[in-house]
Amino acid sequence: MTGRVEGKVALVTGAASGIGRGIAEKLAAEGAVVVVTDIQDPMGEEVVAGIKAAGGQAEYRRHDVTDEDAWIEVVGGIKARHGRLDILVNNAGIGIGGPTLEMKLSDWRRQMAINVDGVFLGVKHGIPLMRASGDGGSIVNISSVAGLKGSPNLSGYCATKGAVRLFTKSIALECAQAKDGIRVNSIHPGLIETPIWITVGNAINPGMNAMPDLDAMSAASVPLGVKGVPADIANGALWLCSDEARYVTGLELVIDGGLILR
Ligand code: NAP
Questions:
Q1: What pLDDT, on the 0 to 100 scale, is given for residue 13?
Q2: pTM of this prediction?
Q3: Whose alpha carbon is nearest atom 17 of ligand 1?
Q4: Contact at 8 Å (CB) between 214 and 225?
Q5: Closest Cα to atom 19, ligand 1: which residue?
Q6: Would residue 182 count as lying in a domain?
Q7: Which residue in 16, 28, 206, 218 could disulfide with 38, CB within 3.0 to 4.6 Å?
């Protein structure tokens, strides 16, 4: 099937790498105009070049999601260039772990700022343009299975992802109350192969500082026995962003090979 989000304008944060990149590429392949944002400029430009080479429409903007002025500029630019916003994927995130009693307050705050403040600012500045567009819209916030269950040495990360889960449901209700046609859902990925595992893996096995063996980890902990890839999350995001999910809001979509079941 093609054209599942044809003509829609999408903003995907943290889209220079990993899951965000996968979502941006998938939305573009299905007909959306995708605004790729990140703080990794060359990688972001590369994603856009790849999308264009494949016949899609995309543009890159530098955008630190913790910076409210940057949100105003990015959303203002989308309004000026495209006149509308239909899809917002709040994906940018980091994983800082380690024993909680040794965690620096500055690291706790940085993780909160990117993983939680960034989602709040996206909702705050994205919804007005979506409402002005007049056709409803879809917001997808990337949480984690770590937002559904606790994990030793990942308490701060779990706290941010749990916050995203309930923030999402609250905004879903605010939009429903406002009858603006905007649906707001969260996705909870499990063990997905991306660079974030270099820092998350280090939290689980302190001192490792390298990509952990995700195949071995998956074989041990994921019921389906294999790791996920960004396209697995992008497929779920595409569905939530398309009109096929017109009756879906406040959902927590778990895509994890069954990890949460254990
Ligand atoms: P990733 O490959 O590291 O991609 C995240 C991107 O966001 C990176 O380019 C990162 O840049 C960027 N970013 C960091 N801080 C930012 C900021 N302040 N403003 C804008 N962009 C920023 O990681 P990923 O695995 O794809 O993660 C994407 C989302 O999925 C995150 O919210 C993560 O928590 C969530 N998630 C991932 C997994 C998994 O197994 N991979 C599982 C559950 C949930 P830097 O490289 O400079 O940090």
A1: 99
A2: 0.98
A3: 64
A4: no
A5: 64
A6: yes
A7: 16
Q: What are phi and psi of 144, to 5 degrees?
A: -175, 165
The Cα 57–Cα 29 span in angstroms is 9
Q: Is there a catalytic annotation at residue 157? A: yes
The two tokens of residue 211 are 């990509």
Alpha helices in the chain (DSSP H): 18-29, 41-53, 68-82, 105-112, 118-133, 155-178, 196-204, 214-221, 230-241
Could you tell me the CATH number of the domain that includes residue 117?
Answer: 3.40.50.720
- Residue 1: which pLDDT band, with cuts at 50, 70 and 90? low
- pLDDT per residue as tens digits for the range 51-94: 999 999 999 999 999 999 999 999 999 999 999 999 999 999 99
Confidence at residue 175, expressed as pLDDT on a 0 to 100 scale: 98
Q: What residue ranges line ligand 1, CB within 6 angstroms?
A: 13-14, 16-20, 38-40, 63-66, 91-95, 114, 142, 144, 189, 191-192, 194-196
CA–CA distances in Å: residue 146 to residues 3, 37, 190:
33, 24, 8
- Would you tell me how many other CB atoms lie within 10 Å of the CB of residue 207? 5
pLDDT tens profile 141-151:
999 999 999 99
pLDDT in tens, 196-219: 998 888 777 777 778 899 999 999
| Active-site residue (options: 157, 197, 214, 218) | 157
DSSP 116: I
DSSP symbol at 117:
I
- Cα(179) to centroid(ligand 1), Å: 32
Question: Domain count of the chain?
Answer: 1
